[in-house]
Amino acid sequence: MAREAGVSVPTVYAVYGNKTGLIQALADAADIAATPSQSLAELEEAENDPVRQLAAMAGYDRRLFERAGDIIALVREAGRTEPALANVYRDGRQRGDETRIQVFSSWPGGVLRQGLDMRSAVDIYAAICNIDVYTTLTGERGWQPDRVECWWTEALARELLA
Length: 162
What we know:
By secondary structure, this protein is an all-alpha fold.
């Protein structure tokens, strides 16, 4: 990695401290690559429209997986043997869950499907919109990213909303 960047390994360690620091920087860059400011603007514009808010969140996930899916997979796999990297992956998932809770909590009562509690709604979102589903559909099934995003939006609306 240092060679491809045209720097020495000691320079990389001087900047990032260790492998965990480097991977944390990659994970942070992955989030930025998905343009969270665009998603925030879309969420605010769709303030009273849960379907459009789900579309904004699905769009963010699509951009994240399209631009940084390899990094997410790297962090997840490296976390199997490196506890600090497992924390990086878990923290990223937790931030996503917190965003979903914040958005879902802003909806008036009766918007979530009857009998669906907040935790289950977040779990359903995570089951539908994740790197594995994205990779399967785009890599193995030949779907274009925009088709995945549209399907996610439709599936989320069907599964989450009254």
